[in-house]
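Project standup — Tuesday

K.O.: blocked on the structure for the chain from last sprint. Re-posting the sequence here as requested.
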Amino acid sequence: MQEKWNQFVYVLCEAKKKDVDEDTYHTLIENQLQLLGWVMYKGEICHKPNIPIGNSKFIQPDILVKNEGEDQFVIEVKRPVHTQSERECVQLESYMRQLKLDVGIYIGEHIEVFYDKPKCKDAVSVMKVPLEMDIKRGARFVELFSKEKFSKDDIVEFCEERIQEIQRQNSLNEIKESLIADAQTQIAESLKPYLMEKYGNSFSEDEIKGMLATMRFTASIDGHQTETIAIVPKTQPTIENNLIKCILTRNADAKGVFNPVSKSLTVLKGSSINPNHLTKKVEKKRAQQFEELTIIQDGKRIVKQDVEFDSPSGAAVFCVGGSANGWDVWKDESGRELNEYRCDEGSKKETHFDEKRVKDPRKFQLEFWAIFKEKLEVTGRIPTLQTPRPQNWYDVRIGRQKIFLNIVCNTQKNFVGVKLYIRNPVVSVYYPALLAKKDEINSALGCEPEWDSNPTAKDKTIALFRQTDLTDSDKREEALDWLVKQTIIFYSVFSKVVKKISF
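H.V.: unblocked you, prediction finished:
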C-alpha cells in the first residue's frame, strides 16, 4: 500500500510545486482516484454532479464517488497551495449530511478525512495526511479508500477507533498541561520526601521546605528537558494590568513592557542587547547609552536598569543596534507583533480591546487573507495580489511607489478597514494634491472616509473602517464581502487619481 500511496500522492505533490489552479488540480485528483480502482466511464467518479434537494434546489459537490449507483463518499477540492478554513469544512459537512454519507474527504494543501459521527453536532476530523511520499498514514488512506477493499462498515470502525485515540490523547494532553501549569507545586511536593529521607539527619523539614521555596521548577510541553530545570528566582518589575509583556530576539535577547495608551516601551533590566553599532547614524547615541545604561557581563552587553523609550522603534534601535521597526520586531508573549496593539486609526477609535477576540490570531489572519484574496481574484478587478501572511494587514499596489492600499483586520478590537496609505517620503507631493480634490474623491468613493486619521504620524492615510465581530462566522463573512467591495472601489478611484499627480 505504501507504493500505491507514493504513486497516488506524487502527482499531487508536483501540482503543489507548480501551484496549479483548482480546476487542473480537480482533474488530477479524479485521475488519481482511478489509480485506486474507481472507474470514471462507469460513472463511479462523478464530476460536480447536480444533486436535487427539495423541489427546486440543487447541491454540487466537487467529486462524488459511487459504486453500482450507490453513493460512497464525497470530496471537497481546493488548490494545493490553499489554506483550509472553517468554511470548507462546513461545506463538506453539509454535502455529507445532504447525501447521508458518514465520510467525506477534503483534498487541498493536505488530505483530511471527516467522519459525521451520529448524534454529534459537527463532523470530526479523524485523519490528516500531508502531501508527502512514504507517509504511513498515506498507506492507510489508500487501503481505506481503494475500491478493492472499500467498505463503509470498515471505515466507520476505523473512524470510531480514531475518535477514541484522539480522546485518549486529549486526556493525556490535559494531564500534561496540568503538570506544566502547576509544575512548581507538584515537583516540590514530590522532592520533599526524597530530600527528607536523604538529608533528614542533617536538616530539619522547615529548612528543606525553605530551600525548595527558593527554587523554581519548570516542565517542557514537548517532553524534552528545558535548558534550566531549577533556577533561583530574581525580582521582577511590577507589571500593571494594562501593560503588554513583550520580547525582541533580532540581534538581541531583550524583554520589555509596552504601554498601548502612551505607546512607550520599557526595556527591562537584564536584557541582552547587540554590543555592535550597525550604522553610523546610531553609533554616538548608543555609545552614550552603553556608558549610562549597560554593563558587560559574561561577554554580553546587559541592560543594568529599566529603560523607558517613547516608542517601540526607539527601544528596538537601542536593542538591535541599527534601524528597526519596533512595531514589527517586538512580539508579545503569544508571538503577535505590537502592530496588533497599535491604535493609529484616529482619535475616534477607542484604545481598549474587544472582549470577543479570536483564539489564534496568526492562524485566523492567514485564513482571513486567503479567503479575501480568493474573493478578490474571482472579481478580476485587481491584476496583482500578494501572498497572504499571518498579519493584521494586506497591501494592494496601485501603480506608484510608497503609496498603496492597506487593508486591515484588527483581531484585538474587532474591526476591518481600507486605507490609502501614503508613506512619509512622498506625503508632501501626494497628500496635498489629493486633499485639493477631497470632495470629488469622496463623491467617487460614495462615502466620507477619515482623511489623515492619525494627524501626529508622518505617514498619511485616507481610511474607511467597519466595526464587526470576527468571532462570528456570519459577521466575518459580511466583513470580508464589505472589504472586497471597498477595496475595489478604493482601487478604481485612487489608481486613476494618483497616476495623474506628477512626482
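K.O.: great, moving the ticket to review. Residues 194-231 form one domain. The longest helix spans residues 152-181.
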